[in-house]
Amino acid sequence: MIEVKNVDKSFDGNQVLKNVSAVFETGKTNMIIGASGSGKTVLMKSIIGLHRIDKGRIEYDGRNLPDMRMSEIRILRREVGMLFQGSALFDSLSVLENVMYPLEMFSPSTKEEMIERAFFCLKHVNLEEKAFGLAPSEISGGMQKRVAIARAIALQPKYLFCDEPNSGLDPKTSLIIDQLIHEITHEFDITTIINSHDMNSVMEIGENIIFIENGEKEWQGHKNDIFHVDNQALNDFVFASKLYKQVKKANQ
Amino acid sequence: MSIISDTGKYILLMKRVFVLPDRWKMFFRQFPKELEKLGLQSLPIVIIISVFIGAIMTIQTKLNTTNPLLPSYSTGLVTRDTLLLEFSSTIMCLILAGKVGSNIASEIGTMRITEQIDALEIMGVNSANYLILPKITAFVVMMPFLVIFSMALGLIGGYFVGVFTNIITTADYLMGIQYAFIPYYVFYSIVKSLAFAFIISSVAAFYGYYSYGGALDVGKSSTNAVVNGSILILFFNLLITNLMLN
Questions:
Q1: How do A29-33 and A191-196 pair as beta strands?
Q2: Choosing among B20, B122, B129, B218, which should be mutated to test the A contact, i.e. which has the most A CBs within 10 A?
Q3: B26:A78 CB<8 A
Q4: B153 and B47 Cβ atoms separated by less than 8 Å
Q5: Which domains does chain A have, with CATH numbers?
Q6: DSSP code per residue over B183-211
Q7: Beta bridge partner(s), residue A55
Q8: Which residues is A24 bridged to in the sheet?
Q9: ipTM > 0.95?
Q10: What is the value of pTM for the model shown?
């Protein structure tokens, strides 16, 4: 479980996060949603430790990140997996080598065990074996996302972060990636945090949704509650499209 | 102000680079790749430039030393000392600052803007150490070989002038390149080249590592790496020459 308590973050006097508190539960797909520029990416980067916060606490199962030294943060990060918006696969390595990289860096396993684990992760994300030897540039965007997920779960992380996992993907592939993240979260009992503004994803897998508006937490709840919330900012964001307006009407 | 803050950032980056690798196995996997990429792949340009400059220098020296009081071997002697003292270390390093410096800066810069460096950091890897240390060590190791190779090829280039033209006889040239040889000049040249190799690779890595934005910004980082690397080479050339030859 990750707990964020009264977090403030400013850049050059511009306060981006204002007293944000939230709980991200284990075994659930926690989602941070909000419009562009609302502060959701800053919140996620602050939770990971890529931004130093001005005030507040970020607790990973009781361990407060801002109190940690760099060496301690590095050790904590070995419990973290991350799926980047652009996949961030290493160009110079093949698909299999990308997944094996964190294992080779931190796992005490033998080479055979590492290959076995990498094969398991890649097959778990439904990647065909013939793609294992290819370079990231030789596979599609959807496949790159799957490889990135496989790499993120290779070390059996306790925490999984996904930054805009559906960015640049078609709706069908987006759905597959969403379901994959959801399955992995439940199967391995991971604390997953997804940063997204894709409403399809939110309605598909959002089990604990945190809505950020102008750097403040406006609302937190389950996807099923979202139709019955009386919050103007949230309604403007969620039901911006005609389709979702109709869905809301149908639900009421 | 920017120079002071950049120098501070550079020193802090080097502090992160020069620590023991998390996994020596990974370092020794990267190291030969960098030897090949930064060293061996620089050989063609070193060969071409050294041979041609050696030949051109011989012709120009001969044409500008027509005084009958000068001994006939003086052309070979001047060519040799110019190659040993300045060309094969400093000028060759300025050329390599363009080739290797831009290569390092653009590679690391692209990794930065495509979030690959962030991915390493999130995994708990010391990205500066993992990416930069093999490059600096490999280039510093390869540089003396490139310099000695350049010296030999430059002298061979001058020899070709004797063989293929009537400007100088091969006997005069060969006598000149052996006359009053000072081995310390080779040592001096190698010491300089080691310092320049460090400057080229570390400055380029610094600009690449702190790239941000898009492809255009990686291009800017690459240009800054080459320009500032070259200026530092010239400055340290003056400093080392003053220390070692004065």
A1: parallel
A2: B122
A3: no
A4: yes
A5: 1-79+160-222 (3.40.50.300), 87-156 (no CATH)
A6: THHHHHHHHHHHHHHHHHHHHHHHHHHT-
A7: A8
A8: A2
A9: no
A10: 0.87
